[in-house]
Amino acid sequence: MRNFVKLGMTAAAAMVVLGAMAVPASAGGLPITLTCGGTTLTAVVNGNGDWAPARDSGSTRVFHPTAFGEFTGTFTPADPSQPPTNETEAPFARKNQPRNGRPTVDCTYHFTFTDPSGTFAGGGGVTGWTSGTRNN
User: What are the domain boundaries of the chain?
Assistant: First the structure.
């Protein structure tokens, strides 16, 4: 269970950094749905650690997380006789914020990960800044 939560937190952190280059979700990494205001993106996180950037799969935009709100997730075992397990992680912020002059944005994220042992779905809030441009 702890590995799923760690994966979830790593994915969440990475998701926040939306694609610096156009990388299709199939290229690797965990796809995460990121919603900032009225914009919803599919971001891919290819990295480890809480502060890994998330790349938008539909543009050159990259989301760089600076703080995470409360994270909640549920692990549902593949064995239907086992009950689901809920997990909550407290909010946390990056101690040394990069000073780049870019405005920050508040977003929400959600992801689902399935393997033979079951499915983990989680999400929460994240604050960060973006680089790159959106292709429209």
Answer: 2-131
CA distance 16 to 109: 8
Instruction: Return the number of other C-beta atoms located less than 10 Å from residue 102's C-beta.
Output: 12
Q: What phi, psi does 29 have (nearest 5°)?
A: 90, 165
pLDDT of residue 117: 96
Express each pLDDT in 99-119 by its tens digit: 777 888 999 999 999 999 999
**What stretch of H or E contains 91?**
none
pTM of the predicted model, to two decimals? 0.70
d(CA 52, CA 20): 12
Residue 45 to residues 22, 97, 129, 136, Cα–Cα distance (Å)? 12, 20, 15, 22
Q: Where are the beta strands (DSSP E) in 19-104?
A: 30-36, 39-45, 54-56, 62-77, 85-89, 92-93
| Alpha helices (runs of H) in 1-136, residue ranges in sequence order | 2-15
The reported pLDDT for the residue numbered 104 is 87
